[in-house]
Amino acid sequence: MSQEYLERTIIRILRVVGLTFFIIIVAFPFYWMIVSSFKSLGEILLKPANLGLDIRKIDFHAYYEVLFEHGFLQYISNSVYVSIVTVILSVTLATVGGYAVTRLRFRGRELMSYSILLIYMFPAIVLVIPLYVMFSRMGLRDSINLLILVYLAQTLPVALYMLRSYFQTLPPEMEHAGLIDGCSRLGVIWRIVIPLSAPALASVALYTFMIAWNEFLFAFMFLDTPEKFTLSRGVVQLAESVHLSKQLVMAASVMVTIPILVLFLFFERRLVRGLTAGAMKG
């Protein structure tokens, strides 16, 4: 056995062991969350260290109680509304703004290009207190629409940056041909740029949806009325009010996690293409 073959074998074994360890560390919390959500409270209290799940004893009562007795149908509705509206606004404004920064010539264009991500220099925890005080004095707090505005400000810079990088890879000759054929700038964006940018748009939409769906800090600070809570805010409310029924918290956590997981797995290829396309320019 040659030295080179031995080294490759050792590297392969270490790689498999490392990946296996990483997968276990990442997947175990999700497994424990799902298993706990299907167990009864008595089973969790009697055998807290039991990580197995008896299929014959699967209990869906926790999901029924969370949905119909703790208001999570309303929380789901609120999260869907906030996330979809944020995605629509963010993708629309980022498409128009990214195209303008990439193709149009105007004063301050370079400054805008380099300052798009300036807001990300400041952590959310630094911004939330001034925003809380300002919106409270203006009487705008405790509003779902205000939450959408905050999420838009949070996601739009990255959406602009991602689409700007992607638009730079598109050949401008196709847009010139559209303009010669009588299309307006908006017509070129709608008929040419958007169809060619489907992977990037899907990436931006998924990224924005994930931020709006999972965000907790601003929802916790700005929302006071339970009927206006989003899912993440509702889970914390449930955890604070239900001390022993941990399977309810696990069932609620599954409801928060599964939609994002499904969307990510469904759009994973387009997400990777959209994130890496801008890096191929040059």
What are the defining features of this structure?
282 residues, 14 helices, single chain, mainly alpha, MetI-like fold
Would you mind describing this structure in some detail?
The chain has 14 helices and no strands. It has 282 residues and is mainly alpha-helical.
CATH class: Mainly Alpha
Taken from the alpha-carbon principal axes, the silhouette is: globular
- Distance between the amino and carboxyl termini: 45 Å
What is the chains' assembly state?
single chain
Q: Number of helical segments? A: 14
CATH superfamily: MetI-like
Output mean pLDDT. 83
* Overall CATH architecture: Orthogonal Bundle
> Which percent range fits the helix content?
over 70%
Task: Describe the main β-sheet briefly.
Answer: none
Helix/strand layout:
Elements: H1 3-37, H2 41-46, H3 61-69, H4 72-103, H5 109-114, H6 124-138, H7 144-167, H8 172-180, H9 185-196, H10 198-214, H11 217-222, H12 231-241, H13 246-266, H14 268-277
Helix pairs in contact: 1-13, 3-13, 4-7, 4-10, 7-10, 8-9, 10-13, 10-14, 12-13
Short characterization:
With 282 residues, the chain is mainly alpha-helical. It has one domain (61-280): Orthogonal Bundle (MetI-like fold), CATH 1.10.3720. It contains 14 helices and no strands.
